[in-house]
Structure formats: C-alpha cells, structure tokens
Amino acid sequence: MAETRSTCPYCGVGCGVVIESEGEQITGVRGDPDHPANFGRLCTKGSTLHLTATAAVTMQTRLLQPMRRTQRGAKPQTIGWDAALDGAAEKFAQVIRDHGPDAVGFYVSGQLLTEDYYVFNKLAKGLVGTNNIDTNSRLCMSSAVAGYKKTLGADAPPACYDDLRHAQCLFITGSNTAWAHPILFRRIEDAKAANPAMKIVVADPRRTDTCEIADLHLPLQPGTDVMLFHGMLHLMLWEGWTDAAYIAAHTTGFDELKRTVRDCTPERVAQICGISKDDLLEAARLFATSAATLSLYCQGLNQSSSGTAKNAALVNLHLATGQIGKPGAGPFSLTGQPNAMGGREVGGLANLLSAHRDLANPAHRAEVAALWGVPSVPEKPGKTAVEMFQAAADGEIRALWIACTNPAQSMPDQATVRRALERCEFVVVQEAFSTTATCDYADLLLPATTWGEKDGTVTNSERRISRVRNAVRRPGETRDDWAIAADFARRLQAQLGSAATLFPYADAESVWNEHRESTRGRDLDITGMSYAMLEAAPQQWPLREGESAGRARLYEDGVFPTPDGRARFVDVAYKPVAEPRDARHPFSLTTGRLRDQWHGMSRTGTLGRLFGHVAEPSVQMHPQDMARRQLREGELVHVTSRRGSIVLPAAGSTDVGLSQAFIAMHWGGEYLSGRSSTGERLAGVNVLTTPAFCPDSKQPELKHAAVKILKAELPWTLLAMGWLPEDAALRVHEALRRLMPSFAFASCVPFGAGGALQGGAAERTGVLFRAAAYEAPADEVLARIEALLALDGADSLRYADRKHGQRRAARLVRDGQDARLEAFLLAGDTRAEAWIKALLQDRLPAQAYGRQLLKPGATAPAGVAARGKVVCSCFGVTQTAIAERLGDVPGSDEERLGALQGALKCGTNCGSCLPELKRMVRASPALATAS
C-alpha cells in the first residue's frame, strides 16, 4: 500500500489528508496528523473521500473521454482529444472574429487548483482579450473580498486558526460553522473546553447546530445584519466601549460613521432585527470589552444584495474597538470552497488581475501585460457570474466555457441560467463527473481529473497554501484542468494567428513558478515559497524571498495596505433585502448547507451513507406556520417565488422563525424535480432564488427570497426503494433521474449502510425514488421504475389495481431460513412506507410479511418499527437507538454523553454529530440516581 499526502477537496478549512492506494485504486483516507489545519481530524465528508473514488463509482459517474453532441438533446459521442480541442479552438476563434472577444466567456470554480485558475485567467485576459472570466467563488466570497478591500485595503484575512485558542469572545455571524466548516468547529469546541470563560455569540436567523455551543444566540431577521452591527456600535459609543486611541492612530472616517449609527437606537434595532434590547446590549458588551474578540463569518453575510455593506459594518466593529492585529482578535472570513482564496490570488474574477491587482488600475494592467508578454490587458470590466449568464441568455455571449462547476444547479434564477445554456451557440463543459445537470447542455464535454489524481496547490481560509498531490494515475483519457486550458490556448493562438509563446508549461510547478513571480512586492508576496518548501509543510502568505516562514496574523503593527497606511471606516446605510416579504409572498426563504453533503453533491451524492442524516429534500417551516395552513409533517407543498415554483415535503422545525422557511442549497435538479400542470419543468431550489446582487461585489442574494407556501393537492403518490449492486446503483439513480419530469413532484436519492466503521458490514448502496401526481402515470413509466429496481422478475411479489391506481411490488431474497426484502414499490397508497422502509433498511426477516407488503395501507407488524434518521454517519447510529439508550442512563449530561458514546460509539470518530448528540442528551430527562 502506498501513502500520499494531499488536501481535502471540500470546504475552505483545507484539511490535510493521507491517501492510501494500492496500484491504481484509492483504498483509504485518513487525516494528516502533521497538517496544521486539522492535525489528523476529518469530518464525515472528508473521512469518506476514498469511497467516492472506488472503481465502481468512477465507472458510473466519471467523464472519462472527450464527447461531442452533434445537436442539442442528442446523446454525446466519443471523440479524440485533438478533434475536441481543434473544434473548440475553431469555434471560439470564429466567434471572436465575427463578434469580438467579449462574445465569449469562461465560468470557472473555487474547486480548481491555483495552477488551473492561473492558466484560465491568462487564457481569457492575455490571449482572448476579454475580462469575461468569473467563478462560482462570486457566489461565495466576493462580498468578503470587497469588504476587506474597502476597510483594510487588501483581500487578506488578518487572523488564523490558532487565534481560536487566544480569543476571549467568539462572534459567529452568518455561518453555521458546525456544518459548513466542521473541523474548525472541533477547534472551537476545544478552545471552549480549555477556556470555559470564553464567550460565544452566534447571530443567525435559524437555530443551527452552531448555536448549541453559544452563550448568546441572536435570532435576527434575515438581511438585517447591517442594522445589528450599527446598533452594537451605537451602544459601544454610548457606553464608552470604543478604543479612541486605536481609532486616532490607525483609522480614518470614523466621524462620518458615527453620524449614521447615531440613529440606530436600541429600540429601532430591536424592532428591525427582531431581537431584544438586552441581548443587543450583551452582544455589544462582550464584543467590545473582551480582551480579544474574533469574528467568524461566511455566506450569511456574503450572499446578499448588501453583502459588502454587511462585511464592512462588521469590520467597523473591530476597528472601533481595536479588536484586530493581536492574538485572538480580528475579522475572519471563512472561505466556502477549498481554493476560492487561490482563485482570488491569481485574479480569477472578472474585476481582478494576478496577485490582487485591480483591473480598473492602469498601472496594474500594464504590470500584468509586461509579466505575460502581451501588448495590453483589456480595461473593460468583464461580466460577473449573474451578468455572464444573463448576457448568454440575451445572445450577447455566444460561446461559453464552464470548468469544474455546475451552474445548472448552483446559480440563482435557474430559468434564466437554463435559457442561457440553451441559447448559447457553443457550450464547453470541462468536468470530472458526467452526472451534473450542466453536462446535459454541453456541446463538448472534456474529461478532467479530480481529487487523488491532480497535482498543484490550494489556499485555505487562513492564507495557508497546501500541496495537492496525485495518488493514482489519471483514469481513462482524463487530463488536468490547467493542461486542458493550456492545450486549447495554444490551438486558439494558432487560429488567431498569434506567434507568442504564452503557455509553455510542462507541469503544474512551472505554472506555479510564474504565478509566484507575479506576486513579487505585492501584499500576498510568495516569492520565498516553492514546491520544495511546500513538500515539507504548508505555508502561510506573505512569505517573501529570503524568509523562512509566513505570517500567522496581519496588521499587528497597525499599518494597513492603503495609501496612508490607515484602515478605513466605511459609512454604509442599512438597506432591507432586495425582495422583501409581502402579502403574496409572506415567507422569507433562506438556503444553506447540510452536515454531510457538499455543494451540488456530484461527489458526496455518490455515497448512500451520507444521505442518512438528511435523507430527502424538504422545506423547513415553523410548526405554528404549518398549523395555520393545516399542513401535516411530510405533506407536499408548492414553494413559489416570483421566478418559479417547486414541490417538496414540508417539515416542522422550531429552528426556523415564524414566517421563515429553509431549503438546503444542495437539492438541484439531479435530486429534486417535477413538472407543473402546464408542462413547465420544476428543478431544484435555485428555481426560486433571486439574481439580485450586491452593487459592489456582484454577489447574488442566494440567502433570501420571498416565497409563498401552499398545500399541493397531489393525491397519487409513489415510493420505490431497493438495494442494488455496487456497480449499478449510481447508474440506476441516473436513469431514475430522467423519469422525474414524468411527475408533478419527484425526488431521487441514494441511501446506504455498512462500511468499515459500521461493524465491519459491507458497504451497501440503494436508491429511493419518491413521486406524486394528480393521477397515476402511464403503465410504462411504472414498469420502467420496476425494471430498474429489478422488481420485474419471477422472484418478485406483485399486485395491481389499475382502476384505483394501485400497484405494489416486492422482491424477497432468501437468507438462510428466512428472506430479506431487497426492493419494493408502493404506488397509489404509500401509508405503509415507514415500516416497509425499516424492513428493507435494517434487513429484518421478512418471510412472514408477503401478504402485508402487497396490502394498501397495511399497518406495521409487531416488532417492526420506523428506524429514525441517522445521527452518526460514521457508525450508522439512529435517533431511535440513541433515545432508547438515553432512557437507561443516569447522571449528569456529560456523564450521559460519555455513556452513550461508550455504548454506541456515536460521536467518537469525526465528531460531526456531537452538537446534535449534546442537544439530544439535554432534551432527554435523566434517570434519577439511586441514593
């Protein structure tokens, strides 16, 4: 077995991993104990990375050869690399000649490596001559970039992970850190345990798992963050909690800001934000008077039409109180993607240039042109993400290159995005996974390498650059992203008649060396950093030539990268959300992450066990809102915004406030779909979200949309589930996905069990298909579902009542003296789903239940009960098992948690389930201890 050190491809924490491989197969993964981001820890996603890279997964989900469609909607055909790239170069050259360089666009990703990003940036701005290159990091971090630049002078997070150990107050706002950055949250738990006096404030409209560790939760109304921060500053001024000496020595612009916050009285702030004046005062006191305050923030601030204002208003608090430039203090933006920071470093956004240079600055443009050896870099601002797809929908952009991202799932206002992809003359999708929704729109599909196969670097949230290394050879005909872009660029140069040698790279390191030189003298200077140095250990920037280590924290001397060396207070006004609630759309919808899933689930969605914690899509509503609308748990509802509508089950939760709703961001058309009564396709949560964006950062307001929620009268329902062979499960999921538009509502998700941690049982994967309609669909649709789940053979029990729209099927497999349920279909009446699902998922003896399996509405047999959701994904421990065990354990909450972990092992591996376990312990009454 070989071992290769690399970096996790999920969130911006940037955890080090050790990849285990045998031959050409990745066989295991564990946390790297020497990596300073995680010290060996991994979350549920990271610890299962190797399972997403098995041969079976690769053969079913990966794009392994270049493919081309001769017409839209047709099945793509395999072609060679030369034909693929020559054809792409000819088409792009033709568009550029006929319509100019701004008629093409490049949409890339924060999951690319820095080397990939650099080549794409040079391709667009240096060769094509367009600034139409943007990234899904625009949806993620661009407001943080703009906020840092406006206040501190540069896009450079000033704090580091080690500051958690020194902080006396943590102010977490707009971040469900427990789920979005789980390993960082483990460090927060450690810091709190080591220093119980440390206070934690969480500002979030929802009561998330992050709130479980909070001393104070501020459940503010969505979009009111600027008012909250101004209200806190108002109180700091009133109480004398600002640092006048720091303000005078190191900042400008405070007097203008004071005039604005003067009107943000506690009464006004409490009314607008929906919090109490006492809680507002306590939050301001803790922030201002603690010896060291560290703020952590993410998409709750960034994904907003006021995203830059929210970021700046929070940084204002740090400057006003001197809570910056010292251990344990500072405004710390948590990067969403593994290399959103690296993309910003190379200028991979429509308004930036290499090494944090500004496109609007003529001197910066000249510097980059000289570095690249081109006459000039275009000065016209490029189209940002939302603008780019709008331009394609309008026919302005005619050729679009999409790399390592899935805009047909992740972009807001999906109707416009899909119209753009349909109208665009030529769409190239450079992708590792063939199963993403965007692949359906591609004229040309180019197979890229992914985690475990690539070589390069990434930068995490604390400015730490880590190596990404390949553990196995590239499968099929896949190529590294930078190599694809460079090969295309050379062919495009020939088509455009350019003789310059702009892309001479032999390997990823040669790209890195050019990028490194571009940073000389800049705020992120890494001229002292090399691949050889990174082989020894990850490094933080800046690390200049001649230095042996980077800087853990910035601005300790109070000098900022502005013309006068002073930080800027930014006077921003509070503005409500772009799309406020009204009588027609009375709910505020927000979106966010699930604990065990990542983005569009192209990788995590291949592993059934990661659906255990949240098995299916739903919209969360407050129970009182459900009661007012006479909705029961699990009933289907129409969720409708001004742009579109989807159908999905309602779930009651006191974690959301009144008149609020929540849908996880991951549920795209690959897992949630349907068709309206007028034939319009309904696909994924981003059908609902608004393209309105922040005027400074151009980041869209994905965190808020006004919606109405109405009961969906869909009387005919269907549920089909089945265990499947490892080499067929994902292929069946993809085939079932194609059937979803046959229904008014449909969801299709994997489910799973087993694995090395779960008692040594073999990893098993199945597929769950749920649907609803106004009436039963054609028999051939149901027959197709049965065939895909192998319910059409002689070993299946069957029942059909066509008159009443009823249909049943069950497949039993002999297991010793008994039989186990392997698959079933309930159509027309799904009331028996709870116990039949338990029978299948828990692999209970089913020999005696043949008749009941086929009887509509049959009640649960004795001894067969619903299993409850999985809380601990590592060991497959369910809510039911935890509740039963807690009922037998006396003692304190800490003692009961320990006994629970000792008995069931839950929470003893990755720790992602610990906040939920602690909540369950507190909520469960303890047995009286014997006297």
Automatic annotation (TrEMBL):
> What's the cofactor?
Mo-bis(molybdopterin guanine dinucleotide); [4Fe-4S] cluster
Keywords of this protein's UniProt record, alphabetized?
4Fe-4S, Iron, Iron-sulfur, Metal-binding, Molybdenum, Nitrate assimilation, Oxidoreductase
In terms of SUPFAM superfamilies, this protein maps to:
ADC-like, Formate dehydrogenase/DMSO reductase, domains 1-3
Name the Pfam families on file. Answer: Fer2_BFD (PF04324), Molybdop_Fe4S4 (PF04879), Molybdopterin (PF00384), Molydop_binding (PF01568)
Q: Domain of life here?
A: Bacteria
Per UniProt, residues of the 4Fe-4S Mo/W bis-MGD-type domain are 1-57
Q: PANTHER family attached here?
A: NADPH-FE(3+) OXIDOREDUCTASE SUBUNIT ALPHA, RESPIRATORY NITRATE REDUCTASE
Can you tell me which family this protein belongs to? Belongs to the prokaryotic molybdopterin-containing oxidoreductase family. NasA/NapA/NarB subfamily.
Record-given protein name: Assimilatory nitrate reductase catalytic subunit
What organism is this sequence from?
A: Variovorax soli
